[in-house]
Amino acid sequence: MNTKGLSANTSSPGQQYYTIDRTIPSSVEAYDGVIGIGVDLVQVSRVRQAVKRRGDRFAHRILSEEELKGRPENVALDLWIAGRFAAKEACLKALGTGWAGGLAFTQVQVRDCGKLELSGHALQLAENQGVVNSRVTLTASGDLVAAMVILDG
Asked: Which residue in 54, 12, 30 sits closest to 133, CA to CA?
């Protein structure tokens, strides 16, 4: 397994996650190049409706416990979920897979609006493609949240 740029995180009992290092090396030669780019756009109002209909079940389907606990108090739950949802979708688009083949929302975790933690099949896909670095950005305006993910080798 190529673990260059990956660091193990075993904070969840029974599960092992790897954090993709966001640091940019001092030389361009350290990169094999861009492996994938993913972009996603989410309407906050649609997430708000889903939260009203399904309550905590919807939030727990999309977010890990750690992501739920990491929400700042001054950020509305629907906006928080919409941003994480968009980032997760963008990540899987960058991997070229979408949600097929046994992937779950909680296999892609967004940390500090810039780090991705992958587990399970999502981690296997990233490793198989040689992903060692990720860049994630989120932006919100009105009823929309956009995310962009760049995966480097």
From this structure: 30
